[in-house]
Amino acid sequence: MSVIQKIRDKYAVVIVVVICLAIVSFLLQDAFFGKNSLIRRSTVVGKVNGEELEFSDYQQMIKTTEDRMRQGQNVLNDQITEQARESAWNQFLSKQIMESQYNKLGLAVTDEEIKDQFTGKNPSPIVTQQFTDEKTGQFDRARMQQVLASINQDKTGQMRAGLLQLEDYIAQSRISQKYLSLIKQAVYYPKWLAEKQIQDNGQLASISYVSVPYATIADSTIKLSDSELNSYINSHKELFKTEESRKVDYISFNVVPSAADTAAALKVLFEAKQELDTISNTDIAAFINRNSDLPFYDSYVAKSALMVPQKDTLLSLPNGAVFGPYYDNNLIVFAKMIDRKLLPDSVKVRHILIATQNQQGGGLPDSIAKARIDSIERAVRGGADFKALVEQYTDDVRSKPTGGEYDVTPSTDFLKEFKDFALEKSKGTIGVVKTLAGYHLIEIMDQKNVGQAVKIAYLAKPVSPSRETDSKAYAEANEFAAKNRDWKTFEKNIQQNGLNKRIADNLRPMDHTIPGIGQARELVRWAYDAKKGDVSNVFTFDNNYVVAVLTAVREEGVAALEDVRPSVEAEVRKNKKAAQIIEKIQSPASLEAVQKATNQPVQTADNISFGTPFVASLGFEPRVVGAAFNKSWGTAKVSAPIEGNAGVYVVKVNAFQPSGQPQDAKSVSRVYEQSLLSALDQQLFSVLKKLSKVEDNRGKFF
């Protein structure tokens, strides 16, 4: 007991401190790493006027959009994914921005309105499109009512989900129409303003003027300072607004096949070519599909449609002859002439298909399908209406609306037996052909331009970089990246070694592609995580390796001088030249005085209209046009010096005359209102978006 008491006396304070530290550590752990931690990564991909979009919700929106864009296909590539992300984001923006407007105005769509869009006298165009009869092209109200009545019997719930989606789409369309109607009703061009416009445009002016071009003062004589340039930017901020972007310079080490790679490809190709020389036409398809990167096309191609290198040489080959090797893009090719014959380059046919049973379980048993097509053939030969039989019997829904008609060419993708019959039989022939789809009754209706067509087999191999070639390019890129870890060294070695530097400017946070590289999302993300002057490690993209340096970081706001220096210098230099010219001219009493002071001639211009800022001899000079109609000067006085786009001008009006274009105020108002209404449809959402507070954080997640 005495030992225990000693421990208590000696270590009590220590134990209390340890317990306190444990409690504090636990609390800090929850604060910094718990669900609601201070440093927990945000899952918000964006905000609009304070409304957040969670990453999980955004992902679901993207998936829904991808499914719609694929339209039942299994293909999903980077381009579709990128488009789906943008579409889903724009959908979120539109919903938040527009719903805010609807709520402010108290706009809504009632259940009765939705019902009326289905059952009213004037159904929604969305509804009529869904229930249009394919035969008549008219709205099928009975079919719509039948579908609506059967929804409760659908145990899967798919029909109800589809109806709810359709109703939501109609509701969005209706409320949008209401909003646009309110906005458009506010468009008004008053009569007094139209009359003023008519008055202003009712005269044409003839002027004399002296032009002193800015080019008469050498650029080298105008000194510019950064403070002057920055002052100009600050005074014209609206002209220099910029969005967030990055600029990178990069070196690309391309993986290009070497001479040894080409030799290896040729060796394989020549070995296969020995068999190509002797193989029979019956075995050629299997051989080509087994050995060539260009699959065998078991059909004829019209001479005019043959689009390959060495076309004339190939067309002159006798049957069985082989030509090559030649290059076709990145392929080395041997071509063998299989056969040639005279075929029309275009054939119009019509057919009736009776489908036979397939792996999916559709169609009729073969014997029943054959009996039916034979019966239809007898009816056609006996004078029956072909189109009526198509409407009644054909299983080809694609050609049913056109009476079973198709246009067939030697290069058209049709089932082989169908295509061979269409191209090789004469006009007026009627016959039955069996394909994988079933039995076809085909009639040749017309043929055009019979000419030579050829069947050619292509033995092709790509020249691909070997592993050694690829490794060599990577080693060069890795060495460059290791030796150039700062911007200054990066630039110095590029110049010393004569490397081809490329520039990727104005990279936005959600960009996925870079010209010259292609898909390069990793590089874009790096540019937004790096600091100005940082040099990247090696990026791997398809057949090249890239090393980049971040050369500019632009935040949203007013552009920095270094990014807009050329345009700002041009404007400030022009203003300084204008000040010098105006000081020389001062307040002229006549054009002759200006001519004497500037050594520039007096010139004339006619038919100047107040509504047109162009002068035939001067170009775009709205200030000169405005001065010509300044009442305080009229025809008695010369104008003050005018700072124009190309120089400084002094103007004197010689005369005014009627324009000869009578207008009425109603027409002028109507034209203006129509132009504004048209602009509203195109620009209204863009304006509302600019007025909203949008925060886009997607670049941190993708």
Automatic annotation (TrEMBL):
Belongs to the PpiD chaperone family. Its main location: membrane. It is found in: Cell inner membrane. The chain crosses the membrane at residues 12-33. Keywords: Cell inner membrane, Cell membrane, Chaperone, Isomerase, Membrane, Rotamase, Transmembrane, Transmembrane helix. It is a single-pass type II membrane protein. PANTHER family: PEPTIDYL-PROLYL CIS-TRANS ISOMERASE D, PERIPLASMIC CHAPERONE PPID. GO terms for cellular component: plasma membrane. It comes from the Bacteria. Residues 344-446 form the PpiC domain. PROSITE patterns: PPIC_PPIASE_2. Signal peptide: none annotated. GO terms for molecular function: peptidyl-prolyl cis-trans isomerase activity. The keyword ATP-binding does not apply. This is Periplasmic chaperone PpiD. SUPFAM superfamilies: FKBP-like, Triger factor/SurA peptide-binding domain-like.
